[in-house]
Protein: Precorrin-4 C(11)-methyltransferase
Organism: Streptomyces venetus
Amino acid sequence: MTVYFIGAGPGAADLITVRGARTLAACRVCLYAGSLVPRELLAECPPDARLVDTAQLDLDQITAELLRAHEEGHDVARLHSGDPSVFSAVAEQMRRLDAAGVPYEVVPGVPAFAAAAASLKRELTVPTVGQSVILTRVANRATPMPEGEDLATLGRSGALIVLHLAAKYADRVVEELLPHYGADCPAAVVAYASRPDEIVIRGTLEEIAGKVKEAGVLRTAVIMVGRTLGAEQFRDSHLYSPERERHVC
């Protein structure tokens, strides 16, 4: 058997990849994060599949379910929201499977920041304005941030910053980034990206925290801060430039 860590995407059921949907349809067991993964996706599972909501399970209990399926010879779909490569807690599950000698694969998904950028109708990397994107979060009651990855330090780069799990701490985000980005820097918050109840908030860094509070957004959101969010006057990229030398094969 194989455990498949599948990125379910940011929220809309039809944003799962074709590979993800096909893999899901072939697994006799599905472990899913019930608080985040759209229920419609479970319809892709085989009719007789065992469905396990992991919302209230700890790591030991989740591992036990994976090992049980392994012993029974069933492939497992482990559905995670967004993409497994960022803020998914997949690494610790992989470590447990490695120790137990259980094979696994990863099926990527659409990350929340990509869905948010689509809702904003923005390219996050704009020629001559910004070519770097920092994906991070803020320290709170969860795992502390490593040394040197605090917002005050990361903000010195001036790169576009995308914060996950931080809407509740918007005031703190603004306070730490203001010295580096300036009060007039474009900022945006997208909650429930790609879902019917999606909320999009735009403004400057100085005013974004107030707008987030006014909208009542506390979770399931990404905060974006950076000049590329408002870029209008910029040079066309070299990729499609008529001056670029093109070879015909």
User: Anything to note?
Assistant: The CA atoms of residues 2 and 39 lie 23 Å apart. The two ends are 45 Å apart (CA to CA). The chain has a mean pLDDT of 93.
